Amino acid sequence: MAVSDAHTGGKDGTRVPMDTLWQNEAGRGEGEPSLLIDVQGFEGPLDLLLHLARNQRVDLARISVLALAEQYLGFVEQARALRLELAADYLVMAAWLAYLKSKLLIPKQQGDDGATGEELVASLQFRLKRLEAMRDAAAALVNRHRLGRDVFPRGMPEMVVVDRASRFSATLYDLLSAYASQRQRQAVSQVQIEKRSVWSLKEARTALVRLMGAVGDWVSLDRFLIDYALSPQERASALASSFAASLELVREGKLEVRQNAPFEPIYMRATRELDEFDEDENA
User: Fold this and answer.
1) Name one Pfam family in it (predicted).
2) Domain of residue 273, CATH code
3) What is the DSSP letter of 196?
4) What is the pLDDT of residues 91-145, one digit of tens each?
């Protein structure tokens, strides 16, 4: 197993010793160390090595686990003086790389219920994608335009114009009901009905006896009403009263009444008893 010396690349291309592996990066806190390693041509931060391993851009089977472990041990010794938890984090990362490499090198044994190397790589790739999405979302929020720095509000806001469009949903029944209610409010509340002039039964009997006494043959009932200048309302009352009086005279045997067909004119003729009754009345 080949072992590579731990070093970093300087600005002039020279190799920097192990004790100068500390640098301040933009994404880390002030004074927080970052590890750079060189393992068989691969040089970069440990998080980049982990990223390449998870995306399978570097063949972990060809990386010297011994060289990686020696560089980590040297880094842990340097980090103890500053932050113990930082050295522990990097040691966990180194242990994970060694475990992942062993999973990839050793075939899966029968009865081994643990996850395979491919399953671990797939799981960690998913976690890296989720972390990358969160970082992209955070960067998008930070890079948005800020009020007072990138954009500025207007000094005088515009008035809001509300455009209202009326839409009627009334039916024909609603329209007729509203019209009826309006007409009812405008209508006269008190209605006075004019008293109608009607013929009494006694008046109709007297006029019928007097007129029938002068006629000897059949004559229509409407003929008797010609002699009276009656309005349409009074004519209907006189016709009804005269017909009732004629029926009473028929019952007494003083008058004969006939009608040829329904709704035809009613004809009347005086009997002998009516003539005698008329003479008695005149006497």
Assistant:
1) SMC_ScpA
2) 1.10.10.580
3) P
4) 676 677 677 777 777 777 777 777 777 787 777 678 777 877 888 899 999 999 8
- Tell me if 59 sits within 8 A of 66, measured CB to CB: no
Residues 124 and 215 occupy one common structural domain? no
Q: What are phi and psi of 168, to 5 degrees?
A: -90, 135
Q: 153 in a domain, yes or no?
A: no
Dig out the tokens for 173 from the structure.
Answer: 């029944």
Split into its structural domains, the chain has a count of 2
Question: Residue 281 corresponds to which tokens in the numbers above?
Answer: 């009345």
The residue count for the chain? 283
Q: In which domain, by residue range, is 222 found?
A: 201-282
SS3 assignment for 105-154: HCCCCCCCCCCCHHHHHHHHHHHHHHHHHHHHHHHHHHCCCCECCCECCC
In a domain, 176, yes or no: no
Task: Locate 5 and state its tokens.
Answer: 């010396």
β-bridge partners, 267? 220, 258
3-state secondary structure of 82: coil
The whole model's pTM is what?
A: 0.31
The DSSP line for 16-58 is EPGGG-----TTS-TT----EEEETTEEEEHHHHHHHHHTT-S
**184 in any annotated domain:** no
